[in-house]
Amino acid sequence: MAAYLNRLHHISLYVSNVDKVAHELVSRFKFNVFAIRLTERVKQLAVRRGSAVFVVNERARGAQQRLNGHQSRVWSPVKATHHQQFEGLYGAPTHYPVDTVSNVCFEVSDVESSSTALRDQGCEFVLPPTQVYDDRGSVTFSVVRSVVGNVCHTLIDTSRYDGVFLPGFQQTADGSSDSYCPITHFDHITYACTRRSTPDITRWYEKNFGFQRFFIDRNEDVDEGYILNQDGIGLRLTAMDYWKCSESGVKVHFKDQKETDCKFVMAESLPEQGRNQVDTFLEEHRGAGVQHIGLYTEDIVSTAQTLTCAGVQFFSPPPTYYTEVGKQQEIVEAGHDPYALSQYGILLDTDVHADDINAPSQRYLLQVFTKPIFGEDTFFLELIERRGATGFGEGNIRALWRSVQAYMNGDQESERKNKQSRQP
């Protein structure tokens, strides 16, 4: 039996400097701080843009967390008020050595039954079903450990709560903003995975959460995934989505269906083409985890312009990308100006299928990657605008891959020169 997921509620970041990362998301990415939870030991800031919500948490320090005297692994329903000062509320207390994005929270209709079903299927729980409440109501949540590095999933039921966010959070004075930035929701989450781990990961999500495979390419091998293994690129991508899985038990009840259409992508490197940015992530992140998150925008050019003016840096493909005859024509036929896209490094990919031969340019997407937002070369964001296309820009993967790789190689070379210059 799969857990009944209703929607993606929020994504948690665990960082050493909450104020710095929250300021980055607000001042540069135009998120709004709308709620804060502050105790003597914990600081949590909730920021949002549209329905995309990040909770920025201080990374936990110190001994193993306890909840009302219970070790977190004990399976026993727990009740707590927001005044009780335990860390990792609504997430997994993490002692991770670097900044990380390690919790994806799903709203469910029944936390206890979903948690029991997952426990019976062998899932490991960091926190059993727990009720937290204040004067605005209560929420129940539990935290299950995934099979991807340090990633956990919080299952939460907020149906009996009418506060600003969650119990313990207070509304902030700057909870709204007039800045125009048409980001509406999370489009996809990409994991950087160790080699040959994808089959176990896909089976885990299929079995426990009812996810189903989403084929990036119609000719992709069901077992091997979408593979790029040439011209210096060694990459395996495997995608899944969770909202189409009603046959497995997932029930979705939302006014805006597209906001529930959040896909999960597993990326792993292939050894034949040498070291690449997935390997860099695994090394600097100290293991598998969330590599990037796609933010959906209704106007990528306007959004990229706004974010660039605010100081966001984007990866740029080689300039020849926009002057190639085929690509230039593809961009023009989709109604865009190659020069305007090139100003921000935005790539366009047309979704052409056999039944689209009469109007191949009507289904396309635009996308661009930001440079890493933490101190390490790990987590970054993606802007994506979809015009009928449901994939991930298969025609852009090589260009995106090379732009990221060039940045990584440049940083590594700069670091090598800096170390040499410091030597006596």
Overall description:
The protein has eight helices and 21 strands. With 424 residues, it is an alpha+beta fold. The chain folds into two domains: 167 residues, 2,3-Dihydroxybiphenyl 1,2-Dioxygenase, domain 1 (Roll); 230 residues, 2,3-Dihydroxybiphenyl 1,2-Dioxygenase, domain 1 (Roll), CATH 3.10.180. A ten-stranded mixed β-sheet has the order 7-9-10-11-8-1-4-3-2-12. Strands 13, 14, 15, 16, 17, 18, 19, 20 and 21 form a nine-stranded mixed β-sheet that branches. Strands 5-6 form a two-stranded antiparallel sheet. The termini are far apart. The C terminus is likely disordered.
Please bin the fraction of helical residues.
10-25%
The CATH class of the largest domain is identified as: Alpha Beta
User: How many structural domains in the coordinates?
Assistant: 2
Which of globular, elongated, flat, extended, rod-shaped describes the shape?
globular
For the secondary structure, the number of strands is: 21
Detail the poorly predicted runs.
Answer: 62-74, 245-257, 415-424
Using the CA coordinates, give the radius of gyration: 22 Å
N to C succession of SSEs: EHEEEEEEEHEEEEEHEEEEHEHHHEEEH
Structural class: alpha+beta
- Enumerate how many helices there are, as a single number: 8
Main sheet?
10 strands, mixed
Sequence of strands across the biggest β-sheet: 7-9-10-11-8-1-4-3-2-12
Strand content: 25-35%
| Global mean pLDDT | 82
CATH H level, superfamily name of the largest domain: 2,3-Dihydroxybiphenyl 1,2-Dioxygenase, domain 1
